[in-house]
Amino acid sequence: MAADLSQIVKAYDVRGVVPDQWDEPLAELFGAAFAQVTGAGAIVIGHDMRPSSPGLSRAFARGAAARGVDVTEIGLCSTDQLYYASGSLDLPGAMFTASHNPAQYNGIKMCRAGAAPVGQDTGLADIRELVESWADSGAPEPAATPGTITQQDTLEDYAAHLRGLVDLTSIRPLKVVVDAGNGMGGHTVPTVFAGLPLDLVPMYFELDGTFPNHEANPLDPANIVDLQKRVREEGADLGIAFDGDADRCFVVDERGGPVSPSAITALVASRELAKHGGKGTVIHNLITSWSVPEVVRENGGTPVRTRVGHSFIKAEMASSGAIFGGEHSAHYYFADFWNADTGMLAALHVLAALGGQDGPLSGLVAEYDRYAGSGEINSTVDDQAARLAAIKATYEGRDGVTLDELDGLTVTSADWWFNVRASNTEPLLRLNAEARDEATMAKVRDEALAIIRG
């Protein structure tokens, strides 16, 4: 077999080291398999700024075209720009990116028409099976009439669509520092922000898939240090950091303080509910802050708790008709955006909220940041199931404590909660804890960690 696909086909996407784990010939087979599984007559493909992305993307296009599928290449784009193309053109799509992974990695995020997700249960397992069989026995027979490969630029249309979803016409002038991390934010931000009353201070906008300045993962505190310093130096109103494929955004306030993604979720939820007349369902995963469902209810909405992961969120968005969804990882999903995630639209909401009043961002978000949280703490363990069982045995039957296993194990009391989940890909347990005050959170966190780490 050309590759060990169990190592690169993940729960939601394809991801691995190029060329060690996958390469252009394999990408061509993925293109052919994607064409067969979706049954589409036409697809759209985009790619990020990684050195291997153009070649892999074109190989995938060749594989699909050989099966008779017409391919529209939109070239360099952010992942949410690819979702825009899939939604607006009503075509299945493939995005070549490894998000925030190091330079030697690349991957494919795939969706059906209208940006509907392709995961293990929605076509990815079938794609893997086909690629494995063809890698063993040779490529499939080409179609009698191959498809065409054409190019289309969607950046201006994508930017106009986003600006049409948030009213920024009457905001006060704002100074905003944006750290693109040498990722696709450097490509999309200048066009999306064009014409807005913003004094934009760009950082690391040069597209460079080797990430020379820092890893393009703003959830790691080490990667926003430069942004925090620059916001303070510039006397800016806020800072925004995007990850490598610019589908997630992270916000810092005027003092350089990080704003939790839960607070951003609550802020955007309140705005989306206001837009929908104080009615609507808002999805949040089970490790977002207690403040999220509280704010949703206070603004007339219905909060729905779900498992972690974009395929679960998007499925729940579709089935419940939700208007918005948010995750602790700074993924934000909008009904106005085909239920897909877009950090750029969340960033525009933050700019509109801040620019629509006179106070600083720290004051604005304080209303949405009500509890003490631990953040996600990873522990390497020998036996994930045994450690989870030990936690369950410790807390089960304790007065005033409830347990649920929607995703890992969540233990809840009147004044605190914590969740422990196993990683699907590494021997890790992930702990998130929250409480009404810092001291209680630290006590709960340390007690759980003592059990996890044995």
Defining traits:
454 residues; alpha/beta; Alpha-D-Glucose-1,6-Bisphosphate, Chain A, domain 3; TATA-Binding Protein; 3 domains; seven-stranded mixed sheet; six-stranded antiparallel sheet; 14 helices; 35% helix
Verbal overview:
With about 450 residues, this protein is of the alpha/beta class. It folds into three domains: about 5-155, 3-Layer(aba) Sandwich (Alpha-D-Glucose-1,6-Bisphosphate, Chain A, domain 3), CATH 3.40.120.10; about 155-365, Alpha-D-Glucose-1,6-Bisphosphate, Chain A, domain 3, CATH 3.40.120; about 370-450, Alpha-D-phosphohexomutase, C-terminal domain (TATA-Binding Protein, 2-Layer Sandwich), CATH 3.30.310.50. About 35% of the residues lie in helices and about 20% in strands. The protein contains 14 helices and 22 strands. The chain has helices at about 25-40, 55-65, 80-90, 125-135, 155-165, 185-190, 225-235, 260-275, 290-300, 310-320, 345-355, 360-365, 385-395, 440-450; strands at about 15, 40-45, 70-75, 95, 105-110, 115, 150, 175-180, 200-205, 240, 250, 260, 280-285, 300-305, 325, 330-335, 370-375, 375-380, 400-405, 410, 415-420, 430-435. The strands form four sheets. Strands 1, 2, 3, 4, 5, 6 and 7 form a seven-stranded mixed sheet that branches. Strands 17, 18, 19, 20, 21 and 22 form a six-stranded antiparallel sheet that branches. β20 and β21 form a beta hairpin. α8 (about 260-275) packs across α11 (about 345-355). It is globular and about 65 Å long. It starts with 13 loop residues before the first strand and ends with a helix. The mean pLDDT is about 95.
